[in-house]
Amino acid sequence: IASVDNWCAFGTAWWTAMDEDGGGQIFQMAPFEARDQQFASLTDAQHDKLLDRLIGIVNVHVPVLFASGASLTSVSSIPLEQDPYFTRLEICAQTASQVAAAIAIDEKVEMFIEEEKRFVGRAAEIMTDLRAQDKHLGPVAFPNKHESIQLQAADLFVWTARNEYRRRVFNPNAPQHAA
Question: Which of 3, 22, 60, 86 is deepest in the core (most CB within 10 A)?
């Protein structure tokens, strides 16, 4: 959660970092970690520098981070109205509103949710219902993850958090990532 001014400054810093250190392209964690696509030529030092730089940009410009996740590996077998995605969406929207109220942000909370054809209609309905009940919730956008730096930053943190969780559960003696 950040103010509009912080998001604008975040965008400028993010694109500058990507232009200078990331090949000037879209950031996606999977190709970044696999050293694929525009990241294929990165040395370990360049990889770590860009990762630290992007995390630092988020830390400077986005004062409140939170997430909620669900395994979506078998969603095709779950009826849409029972899908755990929607519970997580509601939790994120409610958390965003509560945090915005607690830190007294005067602006409405705008949510960026990855464009996913299966979910967009129902997600828009949920957000409309939640906005009717909550004065802090503003518009919801469903951008393509390749066009939204907010979603690119979320990808970085979801990937990092997921891997850290797995490390702590399955290999607690492995070294912790600096992020």
Answer: 22
**3-state class (DSSP) for residue 137:** strand
Q: For helices 44-61 and 4-21, what crossing angle results, to 10°?
A: 170
Q: How far apart are CA 96 and CA 67, in angstroms?
A: 10
Cα 108 from chain centroid?
Answer: 18
Structure tokens at 148: 């939204």
With a CB cutoff of 8 Å and minimum separation 6, the contacts of 53 are 17, 21
Written as tens digits, the pLDDT of the chain (179 aa) is: 777 888 889 999 999 999 999 887 789 888 999 999 889 999 999 999 999 999 999 999 888 776 655 555 544 555 656 666 677 778 888 888 888 777 776 778 888 888 777 778 888 888 888 888 888 888 888 888 888 888 888 888 888 888 887 888 888 787 765 54
First to last CA, the chain: 19
d(CA 21, CA 80): 41
Buried b (16+ CB within 10 A) or exposed e, 157-174: beebeeeeeeeeeeeeee
pTM attached to this predicted model: 0.76
Length of the chain: 179
